[in-house]
């Protein structure tokens, strides 16, 4: 995927809120080394550095465009341009933080214990992932993909939801954890503008499909999805669009 930081940050306030909610649930403890997995444009990584100014913070990000934006937003952070799927550090971290990134990686049954192994004993793993994949915003992307002349090019992208339920992650992490806290929050996001849910997904999930298509076909796919999603999320009397969005959180302390 080619990430567009400006498109992603169109809704920066709404995207930042769960990241801050996760950050605030991490208890105060001695931290020297922090890794932010999927650090994006650095707006959250900057807050992590501000909370633990004496720690070395490394932002790990696979998009060159996002890394460039991150280096401007958080110049006192170490930036590592690498695919999260190939992240195999030689050392452990006191805190591994990841906001809205690990759902892009497959095989969570193996991934989460592997990431926990990179946490120092007594350290913390803090993760937030969207779990909105059965909502119209995301289901209609797949519906559009399977009902158009572009089907053969994009149908491989129509896959089951990438994030499991809370109990799945509890069962994975509880044997490795001294303490574990897992919860879900559904934010009722009040969006402004023309077809804002389309614009929201265009910054993330829809990008996977648009990257495959070119020219008129790309525009036609976006328009077809836009028509569907506008009907699913009509504006209210005030001209606003209400967009419920569910997210899954976990904060786990590794056994000493």
TrEMBL record:
The highest taxon in the source lineage is: Bacteria
- Which InterPro entries would you find in this protein's record? Methyltransf_25 (IPR041698), SAM-dependent_MTases_sf (IPR029063), Trans_acon_MeTrfase_C (IPR023149)
What molecular function terms (GO) are annotated for this protein?
trans-aconitate 2-methyltransferase activity
Q: Which residues form the Methyltransferase domain?
A: 34-123
Query: Which keywords has UniProt assigned to this entry?
Result: Methyltransferase, Transferase
What the entry lists under SUPFAM superfamilies is as follows: S-adenosyl-L-methionine-dependent methyltransferases
Entry's Gene Ontology BP terms: methylation
A Pfam family that the UniProt record links to this protein? Methyltransf_25
Q: Where are the transmembrane segments?
A: none
Q: What is this protein called?
A: Trans-aconitate methyltransferase
Per the UniProt record, the source organism is Bradyrhizobium neotropicale
Source taxonomy: Bacteria, Pseudomonadati, Pseudomonadota, Alphaproteobacteria, Hyphomicrobiales
């Amino acid at each position: 995927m080619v990430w567009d930081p400006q498109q992603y940050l169109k809704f920066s306030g709404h995207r930042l809120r769960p990241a801050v909610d996760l950050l605030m649930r991490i208890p105060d403890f001695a931290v020297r080394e922090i890794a932010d997995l999927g650090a994006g444009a650095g707006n959250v990584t900057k807050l992590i550095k501000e909370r633990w100014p004496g720690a070395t913070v490394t932002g790990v990000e696979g998009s060159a465009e996002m890394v460039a934006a991150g280096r401007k937003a958080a110049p006192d952070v170490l930036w590592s341009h690498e695919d999260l799927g190939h992240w195999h550090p030689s050392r452990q971290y006191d805190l591994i933080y990841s906001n809205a990134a690990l759902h892009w990686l497959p095989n969570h049954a193996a991934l989460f214990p592997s990431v926990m192994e990179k946490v120092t004993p007594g350290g913390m793993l803090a993760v937030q992932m969207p779990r909105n994949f059965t909502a119209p915003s995301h289901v209609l992307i797949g519906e559009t993909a399977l009902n158009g002349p572009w089907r053969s090019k994009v149908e491989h992208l129509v896959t089951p939801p990438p994030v499991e339920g809370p109990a799945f992650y509890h069962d994975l992490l509880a044997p490795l954890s001294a303490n574990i806290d897992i919860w879900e929050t559904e934010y009722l996001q009040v969006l402004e503008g023309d077809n804002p849910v389309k614009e929201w997904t265009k910054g993330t999930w829809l990008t996977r499909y648009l990257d495959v298509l070119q020219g008129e076909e790309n525009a036609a796919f976006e328009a077809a999805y836009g028509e569907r999603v506008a009907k699913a999320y009509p504006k209210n009397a005030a001209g606003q669009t209400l967009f419920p969005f569910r997210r899954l959180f976990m904060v786990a302390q590794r056994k000493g």
